[in-house]
Write the structure tokens for this entry.
Amino acid sequence: MIRAWLGLRRVVCWSQTLRPGMVGLALFLVVAMGADWAEARGALRLQEAGLDSAAATTVDKDAANAAKSAAASEESSVENSPAEPLVYLAITNVTLHTMERDGVIASGTVLMADGKIVAVGKAVEIPAGAEVIDGQGFHLTPGLIDVRSRLYLGPSSADQAGADGSLDAIDGVDRFTSYGQEVLAAGVTAVYLQPGASGSLGGYGATVATGSAEGSAGELSSGVLQAPAAVQMALGGVARAGTSRARRQQYEALQKRLKDAKDYQKAWDDYRAALKKQAESKAESKAGPPAEKPAGEAAANPAADEAARGSGETPANRPRRRPGPPPQAAGDGEETTIVSDSTEDAGAERPAFGVVQEPRPQRGGRSGGRPMSGVPAGQDGAQAAAGEAAGAAASEPKKPAFDPLKERLLPVLKRELPVRFEVRQAEEIGWALSLAQEFNLRLVLEGLTEMKSATAAVRESQAPVVLGPWLNGAGGRETAEATRAWAEVFGPQDGAANALVNRVVIATFSEAPAGSKWLRQHAAMAVAAGLSADQALRGMTIEAAQVSGVGERLGSLRPGKQADLVLFAGQPLDVTAPVALVIQAGKVVWDQRSQMGAATVQAAESPVAESPAAGSPAAESLAAGASFSDPVKALPAVLPARYAVVSRRLLTGGGSWMSSAMLVEDGRIAGCFDTSELPADVPVYDLGDSPVTPGLQSAWWVNPSAGTPISKDSNAAQQFAADGFDPSAANVQRLLESGVNAVHVVNGPDNVVAGQTAWLRLPPSSSGGSGERRGAAEQWVLTERARNIERFPSTLVGQVSLLRDRLAGRGDATTLYLPEAAVAKLMAQRSAQLQAVQSGKLPVVVAVESDGEIDAALRLLAGTEVQAWLYGAVQVRPFAERLAESGVGLIVNPISESTFDWYLEDLVDAQARGVSLLLAGRHGNELRATAAALVAAGMSRDEARDLLMHRTEYAFDPNALGALQVGAPAEFLVWSGDPLELTSRLIWTSWGK
Amino acid sequence: MKKESGNVTLRIVNQTIRRVTRPDLLGPMLFRRREQVGRARRLVLLVLSGLLVVSAGATVGNRLIAARPVSEDLVAESAAKGAGSTELASVLIQADELHVGDGQVLRPGMVWVVDGKIQAVGAALEVPEGTELRQVAALTPGFVDAAASVGVAGGAGEVTSEVTPEFVVSEAIDLLDAEFARQVDRGITTVHVTPSTENVFAGFGSVLKTAGQGDGRWLQKQSGLCLSMCNDPTSRNAARGRPETVYMRQPTNRMGVVWILRSRLHSAGQESPASVPGVNLEVINPLLADMVAGRTPAYAVSRTSYDIETLYRIGDEFGFVPVLVGGDESYKVVDLLKQKQAKVVFTALSTGALGAERSELRWSTPLVLAEAGIEFALAGDRLLDQARFARRYGLSAADAVASITGRPAKILGIEDRVGKLAPGLAADLVAFSGDPLQVTSTIEWVMIDGQLQANGEDQ
């Protein structure tokens, strides 16, 4: 009714705002809306085309006739309906990423009304009075969907898992949190939630709108878009729980559950069939045996139909029957495979075996659960009662016991719900595929970090694959390995485009409530790993919607779909382009446009290729990874001793690009020239537009293999972070592979004066060079880690007083049990180091966290000459002025799932006030993601590139040459695009010789 | 600054609140700048420089995205002053009932505030044209908590040693701690933050305002030396009967507490004291000597009657008079306290039905102390509730209000700055909708140094 009412309002409005002749058109809208808005829209298009419009929009021709006939029947009611204007919202002049057949429409228009998209195309007529947003320079996509989120789920709901399928994600949803807004502001308008992924069979997942509970209107107030949306299954889960054998047991348990559910369904179907047969035979006996018809065709008989209705079966559920022979014939002969004796009585008395047939009992009727798939609740009771009455005299078919747990699996067996199957390794992937085949499941594969030998099987299966996480907070290790693995998976297969690539859906697999806000970063990383930009975008929109059970409502710009839209100030996959505007169900829920000048929009226009429409040759070549191969071809496998590299994008000292040629001699940079000035005899490698940069630098790296020595003295100034550094360790190799060639290595955090740090160049060729054995800074720790109740200090006050005393040269003593000579040497070393700190020659890095610690550090440093950097500050804004005044810099933690947008904005703001920043990270991707996030928060690109490549060196190496300077080692990187764009890939590295 | 009523849009100042778009029903609150944000709290406190009272917002990060003004006037006022400041340069507050803070009550009464200080107090005042007028049912001075434990970052006791007089809590007080805002909501405008009681000589406390900017918040960075003449210092001994283990920390029992007090104080009085391993006498002894000489106040935590007796015995021995903190069983030693003219910071009402150290509590102890003429303050958080409770057990209304305002200020030695409604003192005011000691009355607003702070909805 409400829909109809809205429809009437719409009609009147249309008739007023457009032209009188369109009343009829509007009328059929009313009717069609109730059934299918898209159809109605198609009809509208036909009409418009007939008048004068030439909109480039999808036209559904089938809708026209139905709508016309409907219009006639509704005409009379229109006259009585009250008029209320419909509010139109249009975004014009915008680049539309439709995710439909239209592909990308440059300078198009989207028209919305009543929470739905009304028109999409190049020439859309905008009704008078519509609110119009000029999207010049912006890109518009459907609202993004994270298909693996934990937004709104409390810790217990998200982490505790099930193994019997009894859980329901919507029961754990608490939309009263600010995280929803944070995720919404990142352009993610819907998320798929499910019970904890460490359990083999948790239960139902749900697709939920983001945003805050109190803000959403109408049907969104509960936020639930689709529930249940899928069934969660996993082997081993995210945590890689258990051994291979344990996972095998999980698999067998799953198999048993599915089989039991299948048997259960059979038992009920058989029971139904028996009841029906009984009713039919009664009807037959009443009407007299119809001599002209064979018994096997009784189901087609009108009398039998009536009998079926009498026993509770309705036409609504009859179409669910499997196609095949008529029920009776089936029951008697072919499908009763186990029970050979197929008389009525035998079939009914053995309910455990029999024909698979509808209907089955519904949860809504018996268990009090949510009704599903449109089957009326309560019908089973009625049916059972009717059945009992009918069969009172004859032998009663035995009713199977109702089992709510098995009930929950039936939609899976009937392919009404997909199975979201999380598997990581080849072995489990194989098991998942075999389960899917055995029970004919609608499979969605998730995880797949180590596909390896299962790659071919995954390619062959038609299942969508949900991949992630790409932006990993746990040290970048998994990211690195997965990225390597997926690059192979995405690659061309036997020279042809890879079909698997077109089924990839992007997810964050986030472990933090607001982790879904980094969805775009994950997608960009996937592109860097070889996925096509087009598919990455589809994997966050239309395909994500389909996997989440909302493919008909969300995920593309199509008339009739819910108006969930995101306006980006640049290419959607360029994470440095901020989200400008978010529209959810037709309402503007986030508007950042006033915060960004036109300059931002212009600057954000990046050289990322326009994502071509799916199916176009360009998309094919992208999918095949061809776009990354060209610059590599320009470089030989082994470089000569003397050569020159030419690029139109060579990074200069200030972080900006320069078109230049770089001459390299004996592994060192011999000069930068204009291309024409190069010596004639030098081999020249022209890299074209591919950016050439120095290596990335990390300002805070704890050497994992060094351990954390807890000194008996809280003052462990003599400890040296470079001790125990192993240049061939795996983590060092990962750093190098990701483009990081120099790190500031720090000590463990257990001592208040933690020791000396080191500035280390990682490439093997540069070890043994100058500066490695010298301390880069002295490290202080004001965080909780250095407090110890068995050793002074146990409080922040104690830490401050210890450092104050040290700075003042008071009370320096050691409790270490050492010979006198050693003590004297130790004291001399501490004293010399102290003088360097006091005079500002040796910088100090201070680990802090909470406000109190930041405040204490700033008070400690006030009025001294000490050059200091703070690392780990949770909050910057209240201290920005004091940091700037005292010249104390900040070492920025890499972004993680729990980083707030405001934190990044505060950093940019602090930098604008004069606070120096450095970037920390454990992997090149972490550093780049952080720099990109800072750009999205307002930092200039040059500045961000400078942070990535130069600043740390200047801070910790007084002899720093600056990278890519004459005399510096020829350590440089060649990228497929700007390293600030996470879609860019490191395609070539030179570490000196 | 841009203001629309109804569906509020506030696009404000200093980029602190960037947009406020939708109303919301979560209840009114104060938005305070520089508030710790995002720690699993549904609502985040923010300010637009100075103050704006709005009802509640949902947030994105620390960005307020929804809010509704409680008082249109206040918003308009903020808007008029441009930067959103609500410092009221000159304001006259009329109250039906005005508690001066020293036991006097004016009905009606007026307070004239100019530039954050009280200019005049009286039954009727003449003020110049243009002075803003506010009317309230009842007005008291801001409450003073003489024994608080808020806002200390990283531990309030250096428990690695039992003698830490050099410990100063002001070194680690986090002025941005959200707990301070909660104190403001409860009407508490001044707190004496003390170190924890696990050391015999615990260190120095600090007296500061619960709101304000920068260094102006401090009243005493080092208030006085805090001692523990109670069982608490023994709790850090982990020897469990093994006298020679490394887990041994002194003292191990109550007698040990007394011995450490006595031996350290004795050492402090010596010209050339015998050295003690692990103790830096050069630093410690001057601090103790100052206390003994009365140059530094002493705050001693004692709860049971025998600890109180011991405390004053030691005081007599070395010639100093401590302020008694705790005092659970002070009703048992009323005569002693009277004789010593003791000042008592009574915290037993904040510890619940079972006293600390299983001391035997009596609800009427404040009344007993008042009748004996002993100077006491109610302390240890939720001061208004404590005063109301004491009133329920017989304390007079005037004494009840004085024991959370003027009396604690006097005991802390800050009576010339806060605690009373008197000319020259800071304009720290709490406005009530009715009799402050009735549970049906709510705090309507709190003013600290002339700045409006909260609408007290937390009550």
Observations:
- The first helix of chain A runs from residue 2 to 17.
